[in-house]
# Entry
Amino acid sequence: MTRSRISTILVLSLLGGCTIPGGAPYDQDERVTQPRVEPASITVIPSGPTIASETLARVEAENPHGSIRIHVDSSLTAPTVSVKPFAPGGLTNDETKEIEDNLSIIAETILEDNRMVLRASAALAMDFEGVRLDMLIRTPDSSTTVVRNSHGIIELVGVGGQIVASSGEMGGTGVGGDILIRSNTPIQGPVYVSTTSGDIRVFAVGESAGEMELTSDDGSVEVNVESGSISNVRPEDSYYTGILNNGRNVISIRTNHGKVSFNIENKNWERSGPFEYARSSRDR
# Structure
């Protein structure tokens, strides 16, 4: 793959000011650092028919270069897809322009099998070292959510029904991130969530149901069920199985490197503002 290293130095050639002893002026290269700024998000409206709330829509998203956030808001009249490039320490205007020239955003809605489907993806035509893309999808509905990414977190807010999310399995890099899910919509599966490296935290309401299998290859698994019932529990430090609310659908959650935390309680998990995933529900 072609690689492009983002340059942070602008070289200007200035004449005058210095001379060779006994001779004429010579050219001097002066290095001037460009100011680094935070680029703005690029927002697109998906082409195709509009998704409305409570239509059992399906949302599919891919981003091999960074994070994916899907926020369901029933008050919206149409979905939007925003992509924001970023790098540690910011980017110069020249760097931002070069990235945008090589950035591809696909966002479309289609009617498939009598069901609305939103498909979104972000990709870079060149590999810019250290540059990541942060994708945010805001949609009126997502009863089925299918997400894949690398090099960033996955955050799903307000989703319900079927969830398939994997981080770190795109592009063969193996670099994943945290997967964070919180919803007031019952999660009734099937659910398949996995990351190659990162914590997985789920905050759901008491009507959620399913046969749970939670695994951490080198970390801990914590389950907190304060609403609903759980049976056939077999808890271990890094492996947990149990049946939530007599559900039969699969709830499979696995991290190769990190912790798994599963919280069931009737709270407003979709509240606005920063969400402190690391805190247990008892500390809220």
About this structure: The longest strand covers residues 103-112. DSSP finds one helix and 23 strands in the chain. Residues 1-31, 279-284 have pLDDT under 50 and may be disordered.
